[in-house]
Amino acid sequence: MPGPPSTNTADRLVELLGDDLDHGRPDTSFSPFWSNVGLGFAAGSAEDGTPGLASGAGFAGGPAAAARGAPQDRPRPPGIATLYLHLNRVTRALGAPFLAVPGRLVADARRALTVEQDLGGGRLRVAFGGVDTFLVEATRVDHARLAFLDDPALRLAGVERLGADRRYRASVPVLDARDPDPVLPVTIGARLLHGAWDDDEARGRLRAAPDGDWRLLVTVALLEVDDARVNAQLDGAAATFDEALGRSRAWLAEALGGWHLPEPEPAAARLAATAAYALLSNGFAAPGLLAGPARGTGGATPAASDRRSRRVASYPSRGGYPVHFLWDACFHALGLSDMAPSLATDVLEILTDNVRPDGKLPHFVAATWVRPGASQPPLVGWAVERLVEERGDLDLARRVLPALVANHRWWLANRGTRFGLIRCDDPYESGWDDTPRLDDGSILALDMNAYLLRSLRAAARLAKRLGQEALATDQAARAHRLDAALLHHLYDPERNLFLDADAETGTRRPLLTPAAFLPLWAGVSLAPQRARAMVRETLLDPDRLFGAVPFPSVAYDEPTFRPDGWWRGPAWPPIMLLMIELLQGLDFAAEAAEAEERLYRLLLRDGELHELFDARTGAGLGQRHQGWTAAAFLWLAARRAEREERVP
Fold first, then answer.
1. Which one is predicted more confidently, 307 or 274?
2. Over the chain, what is the mean pLDDT?
């Protein structure tokens, strides 16, 4: 169980992260305090003040995501280049720039909780003091301008002047065509705490006070933009830089909960700090469907609005994937489980609380919509049972079990086949977005059936612990039938291997991927000696699946193998973790330790927690600071620390 919050751990984490964080990209924007917005301090021309990223641009994940982002070879301009809106599937960049400040940037410090800019004769400091609310303090800077008002993507509906406050009511076009609404409402509230506004509110110009300084508080309301909320965020926010920094520091300490920073070699300690901070800064007190019932996620820390009592969603990447994905969340729970106790339960209950009446769990949950069509791998039962076992939290089991059982019924009713197995028609539903496994049409998918088998058994055990004997019997019986169907239709006794099969004919397909071993991970009723032989002869074969970068998404010797092709060869951290669990479960202790070490060293060499990895070179691909990769490193680091404690 997590212990009490540790300010010392928070301070050590900030120290390890250093003073030169990259806040110039949407996936690493400056965004503490569960904020839905991030600040970009991107590369650009210090003379003209233009941001290094096109205003109004959108950023989403996928194979081309690694090429996106701010260029890093030009001087950084002073002020705030970009405001990123991390909401509803595609991050939007807003600003032309966002806050324009005169002068030349001499040096800057970009930390986890503050950004400080040295302008030669002046200084600028920025810190968040509440959710979506930040303070900008300038010393010896005579003026500034809210330059986001020039962004053509911003549809300004009106400006209201209320003493020292300005309200900019606007909207921006949404960037995902699946979103049912064409625009996202935005209100930006600005309160000048020190200094004076120019008369023309529409230009957003401010001047320093006679002492040459100014201090500006900014809050951003997305989707829920009523005046009361904006006022509450401004009234409850920190009014001085030191107070804002203190609140951010308290937020970080509370969010880390009882997590302890491992102290191995410096590179590992820094990556552990990076992983923890990445998971937390990919967490959002998001509005709408993600919010859920109001309850404590850290009431001890003052916040700018009632959002401090809302659930915290966990995005895979705030820049590339700003929504709450089903199977990502299940892996995020691995890394969040030692932090503030509500975080790991939040990420799972956001899914189960959004179950459809027929039992379908959404592919992802956005603030205003859920992805239509596909679901995602049924791993919630595995993740929930793991958390219940770690904490003895039967209340969590009681809350989520009805949704879990309904979801099992949905899979069997809507994806069921005459073979007693569920089918996969859409690679996005499997999570293996571009896998060659579906090149020839729909399959009886090994991974999906294995996940469902594991989830059914988890539900049976949870129901039994709750004293719901009839439900436990029902879930166990369904698991038994699925187990038998897996063995009968997808197991090839001659090859001693599980294989996907054509969903219409039942003909097995020969392509070898790690999915072949997921039935073993799920506990399929294959004779133990055959299971161990399968692992020893195929999974641990260095020419097929256990090379320097272990467990590629397609075996090295397959004709379709491409080491850098999205799900056609690269190694993905979640699948690597499941293969390690399998080795442990079948008593391949030495091999499991070796696989852990290879993955651990791979992540250390990468240093940026990429989404996936080239299966030949180990080069990172996709998004940086990806949630499941961060969770994987924290899981590995915790296991190493446990092993070292046992060694005399």
1. 274
2. 91
Which CATH number does 377-525 carry?
1.50.10.10
Q: Where are the domains of the chain?
A: 7-254, 377-525, 527-641
Instruction: Write down the pLDDT at residue 295.
Output: 47
Is residue 51 within 8 A of residue 150, CB to CB? The reply is no
For the chain, count helices (H), then strands (E). 16, 27
- 445 phi and psi angles, rounded to 5 deg: -80, 125
Provide the pLDDT for residue 263.
72
Q: Are 411 and 430 in contact (CB under 8 A)?
A: no
Out of 231-245, 294-308, 368-382, pick the least confident. 294-308
Tell me the DSSP string of 284-345.
E---GGGT-S---S-TTS--SSGGGGS--EE-SBTTTB-SEEHHHHHHHHHHHTTSSHHHHH
What SS3 class is residue 593?
helix
Strand partners, 444: 501
pLDDT of residue 471: 98
Q: Phi and psi of 532, rounded to 5°?
A: -65, -35
Amino acid present at 329: A
State the DSSP code for 436: G
Beta-bridge partners for 116? 109, 125
Confidence of residue 587 (pLDDT cuts 50, 70, 90): very high
Chain CA centroid to CA 414, Å = 28
Report the alpha-carbon distance of residue 217 to residue 240 in Å, rounded: 9
Residue 6 has what pLDDT? 59
Do 13 and 261 form a contact (C-beta atoms < 8 A)?
A: yes
3 state DSSP class of 82: strand
Does this chain's domain 7-254 share its CATH topology with 377-525?
A: no
Q: How many CA atoms lie within 13 A of 532 on its CB side?
A: 10
Q: What is the largest CA-CA distance in the chain?
A: 86
Distance in Å from the first CA to the final CA of the chain? 25
Six token digits for residue 338: 């030692």
Q: Is 70 exceeded by the pLDDT of residue 5?
A: no
Q: What's the per-residue H, E or C state across 25-77?
A: CHHHCECCCCCCEEEECCCCCCCCCCCCCCCCCEECCCCCHHHCCCCCCCCCC
pLDDT of residue 468 exceeding 50, the answer is yes
Could you give the count of Cα atoms lying within 13 Å of 283 in the half-sphere of its Cβ? 34
**CA–CA dist 313, 290 (Å, integer):** 7
Residue 63's pLDDT is what? Answer: 64
Which string of DSSP letters, residue by residue, matches 184-204?
A: EEEEEEEEEEESEE-S-GGGT
Beta strands in 362-505 (DSSP E): 364-365, 443-444, 491-492, 497-498, 501-502
What one-letter code names the amino acid at 109?
A: A
pLDDT band at 298 (very low <50, low <70, confident <90, very high): very low
Q: Which two tokens stand for residue 170?
A: 């606007």
What number does CATH give the domain 7-254?
A: 2.70.98
Amino acid at site 452? L
Beta strand pairing status for 115-118 and 123-130?
Answer: antiparallel
* CA separation for the pair 162, 167 (Å, rounded): 8
